[in-house]
Amino acid sequence: MQALSIHGLTKTYGNGVVALKGIDFEVGKGEFTALLGPNGAGKTTTIGIITSLVNKTAGTVKVFDYDIDTHMDLAKSCIGLVPQEINFNQFEKPFDIVVNQAGFYGIPRKLGKQRAEKYLKQLSLWDKHDDISRNLSGGMKRRLMIARALVHEPKLLILDEPTAGVDIEIRRSMWDFLKKINKEGITIILTTHYLEEAENLCRRVAIIDHGEIIVQGRTRELLEKLRTETFVLNLRKPLAQLPPLDGYAVTQVDDTTLEVEVSKSQNINTLFELLSKDDVQVLSMRNKVNRLEELFVRLVEGKG
Amino acid sequence: MHVSRLRANYIGFQTIVIKEVVRVLRIWIQTLVPPAISMTLYFIIFGGLIGSRVGQMGGYSYMAYIAPGLIMMSVINNSYVNVVSSFFGSKFGHYIEELQVSPLPNYMIILGYMMGGVVRGILVAILITIIALFFTRLHLVHPLITVSVVILTAVLFSLGGLINAIYAKKFDDVTIIPTFILTPLTYLGGVFYSIHLLPVFWQNVSRLDPILYMVNAFRYGILGVSDIGIGTAYAIILLFILGLFCFSLWLLNKGVGLRS
């Protein structure tokens, strides 16, 4: 059984904009999948249709085999949604927001309160549970939406850019939390602009652009398709002249920085040997962009 | 339908009602105090100062005659405004999505918001009745009719407020109907006078105003006098409730104003 199965999903908005052009997208049970794409690619529309916030034009969507056309209530019971925009009443208290959401899913109030406490504690929000949520920081508001999405214990958690505008420390703690709940069995779909996030967290990736899925598969397998990687080398001493590095595309960024494009057929040891021969000492080396970002840019810009 | 689903739906409904009632009580200065102040002024100015010169109407003092109308006016305004502002607020703040993504069926969402409006309507009715008792004696000739008409009227206008909120796109849209339609219809609905004082033509025009039936049915419950038949009043109220409920359900099922 697939956690999510989308076939031929099409969306044309009232103003004629075609947001989705018959996409096929599947997410296996227990997977951690990233849905990537530039702004306006169709990510939020896809999530909106899955969660019934947007009407579809054509196609089928099944959540744990429940078709949203025929068993919408059962499909909805399986899903927890963390939307891109803050969408809770900011005059209410975090505890009430989470307890009420439990109620909307038919969870008795007593149990709802227990679960609200459990998830607010897990997301380090318990000390704020009785504050007015308007006063929470941006990161806290995002974590509150995660607690709210989990209170009915969904089998599929969908997060639409959950770490947007969140500082690094909180982002990393959110990653740890998401990894933990995924290990516990919750299937996760994540949209993000931080490709480092997708590469670190997600075993599968789908890239959507102009309403079409242009690639989907295992993150590792997709990254293997990258034919070249660009490395940034920081040099110990300023370089007067660029040494001959036969076979490598090299750009001198400044006196002490080189950018070298290394293709899969090339050996990085050879590069260092050539540099050593010319007495060029490398202090440190890093990827110019993260690998998934490189793949993403190449696919979206059609450089495959 | 499976029993557990029914129970789950009931819990969802109950949650909306609790949320709405908490909201009414939390912002009591906005929800309960204003009708108390404005109705006290109505009692003093229209009932006391002007009413003492009007004399009797329908066999009762003018103060006693307008008291049921003023109570009903408060119920109409408050039940309507409660739902229109709460539902539109949830649309505006996007937290209506909390309900949209949940498995709670649309009819339960309607009933939940409607019940919130009814609770506020009844709370205000009790408050205004207590204030009225400082100015006049109320007999309560038909208690059952009195209570049922208040509840049904609150139901009807809560549904009206919900439909207004579904269509509303900006804050102006939630004030247009109460200002330009609801208030004139309430004033012309026999709150301050018997329609028998009007020329025949305007009496017939007044009969097109649904609020006339509610005000008169309520007045009948309290004073035992009415300009129209009580059976007709119930029929009109129930017909409107059925029509508005079906229409609001259709709107939510279609996702009008909520889903693109």
Protein architecture, described:
The complex is a heterodimer of chains A (304) and B (260). With 304 residues, chain A is of the alpha/beta class. Chain A has helices spanning 43-50, 72-78, 94-104, 109-122, 138-150, 168-183, 195-201, 219-224, 268-277, 291-300; strands spanning 2-12, 18-28, 32-36, 58-63, 66-67, 79-82, 156-160, 187-191, 204-209, 212-218, 228-235, 249-254, 257-263, 282-287. A 6-stranded mixed β-sheet of chain A has the order 6-7-8-3-9-10, with helices on both faces. In chain A, β1 and β2 form a beta hairpin. In chain A, α3 crosses α4, α4 packs across α5 (138-150) and α7 (195-201) packs across α10 (291-300). Chain A starts with a strand and ends with a helix. The mean pLDDT of chain A is 91. Chain B has one domain (3-254). Chain B has a two-stranded antiparallel sheet. The A-B interface holds A 13-14, 48, 51-55, 72-74, 76-77, 79, 81, 83, 85-90, 96, 100-101, 103-109, 148 and B 4-5, 7-9, 11-12, 14-16, 18-19, 22, 89-90, 93-95, 97-105, 255, 259-260.
User: Major beta sheet of chain A, specifics?
Assistant: 6 strands, mixed
Widest beta sheet: strand line-up of chain A: 6-7-8-3-9-10
Q: Please give the alpha-carbon distance between the first and last residues of chain A.
A: 32 Å
Query: Total strand count of chain A, please?
Result: 14
How many distinct domains of chain B? 1
Strand coverage percent of chain A: 25-35%
Structural class given helices, strands, pairing of chain A? alpha/beta
Average per-residue pLDDT of chain B, rounded, comes to: 93
The number of domains of chain A? 2
Strand order of the largest sheet of chain B: 1-2
CATH C-level class of the largest domain in chain A: Alpha Beta
User: Main β-sheet of chain B: number of strands, strand sense, barrel status?
Assistant: 2 strands, antiparallel
Q: How much of the residues of chain B is beta strand, in percent?
A: under 5%
Give the rounded overall mean pLDDT of chain A: 91
